[in-house]
Every structure is written in structure tokens, then in C-alpha cells.
Amino acid sequence: MQPLNKTNLAETAIEAIRGEILAKRWSVGDKLPNEAALSAALAVSRGTIREAVRVLVSQGLLETRQGSGTYVLSTMDATRPLTMARRASLRDQFEARCALDVEAARLASLRQTPEIITRLRDLLAKRGNYEGGDKAAFIERDLTFHKAIIAASGNRAMIEIYDFFSASIAETIEATLGQDIPEPDMQAHVSIIDAIETGRPAKADAAVRRFMQPVIAALERMILS
């Protein structure tokens, strides 16, 4: 087991210990090294190890025995089916969002004005890049930018549909802030505005599809893995 870096220590400790269990470093019934040994091996505090063990007990991989220690209860990941279902659900959400975003960008390209383009660029500048910190605030800024593209379509029904699904869309944004799913970078966002500004629906369509493709492809790979 390797020492961990200093970000998200509890989550990383959970994954490190889970990885060893699933790799069958210990067999069912084996006793884990004590807190002090695990703490030294992973270079984290004993409190972090206790939190990791608590989570793994709740997931059915470990059991604690009063006065005896912590033992391996299972080497099968019971969370995998739920994880796979979650990934499939996210893929469906992204595909639905792509359909809305593509058509909105096409319409926006036909109805864009210099004022609309300026507003989109201003909102994108305010959005910035996510560099840690207040995740909820960043999601709100990103959602505001994408809603502005929907508004630029001039289609009232589409605007209302997007508002109705805003919680689901915010969830897709949050998913790209983790490590598994790539977050579209600033240039990908700029490219959508540039394509809308051309007034050519096909260019706007292609820009949004390029924006979404790496995310959907990553989810497809994760579902199949």
C-alpha cells in the first residue's frame, strides 16, 4: 500500500483499502492490520482510517469485532451493480441534455444578435474554470451559462423544458467535476458561442456534439468496464 496524497484523504483511503480487499490481498475472515499499521502504510491519521473502515463496514466488505479488530467480510464489491446503474442513468441524462442543447444552439445561431453573443461571452467569463472550492456556486454559474444558450433559441417551450429538468442538468454538470468523467474545458464552451455567432446551424450543432462526445464516450466505457 502506497502513501496517499493530501486531497480527499478519507475517500482516497476508502478506495485504497477497498482496492486491496477486491484484489484479495486478504481473504474472507482475515484480520486487517490494526489502525496504527494502516495509518503508517497510507500516511494518514488514525481518524481517517477509522472513517474508511466505517464506510467499508457499511458497504459489507468489512466487519468489526469488539475487542478483536476488523475482519474481511467479503471480497465482492456489492456496490458495483448500483455504480453501473448510476453510470447508465448519467449517460441517459447526458444524451437527453445533448438533444436539447444541440437544437437550442441551432435555433440560437439563426436568432443570435450582437447583444446575445456579448451576454454569452460575459456569462462564460463569470463561469470561469473549476479549480476546487465552492462546487455548488460553480455549478450554478455553469448552469446559468447553458440556460442562456437555451434562452437564445427564442423557443419558449424549450426554455420551460430546460427549467423543468434543471436539477437533472445540474447533476450532469456536477458529474464532470469528479475524476471519472471529463469536464469540457473553456475552449469547448467558447467554441459553442463562436459557432452560434456564425449564424450557421450546422456549425452550432457540431460544436455542441463535440462538447458532449468525450463525456458520453467516457460513460459508455465505464458502463462496459
Defining traits:
225 residues, mainly alpha, Arc Repressor Mutant, subunit A, Four Helix Bundle (Hemerythrin (Met), subunit A), two-stranded antiparallel ribbon, 68% helix, TF_FadR/GntR_C, DNA-binding, transcription, GntR_C
Describe the fold and architecture.
The protein is mainly alpha-helical. The protein folds into two domains: 6-76, Orthogonal Bundle (Arc Repressor Mutant, subunit A), CATH 1.10.10.10; 80-224, GntR ligand-binding domain-like (Four Helix Bundle (Hemerythrin (Met), subunit A), Up-down Bundle), CATH 1.20.120.530. Helix content is 68%, strand content 4%. It contains ten helices and two strands; from the N terminus they run αααββααααααα. A two-stranded antiparallel sheet has the order 1-2. β1 and β2 form a beta hairpin. α4 runs parallel beside α9 (186-197) and α5 packs antiparallel against α6. The longest helix has 32 residues, at 80-111.
What is shown here, in short?
The protein is mainly alpha-helical.
In the CATH hierarchy, the architecture of the largest domain is Up-down Bundle
- Structural class of the helix and strand makeup? mainly alpha
H/E element sequence: HHHEEHHHHHHH
Low-confidence stretches: none
Percentage of helical residues?
55-70%
User: What average pLDDT do the residues reach?
Assistant: 87
The number of helical segments is 10
What is the CATH homologous superfamily assignment of the largest domain? GntR ligand-binding domain-like
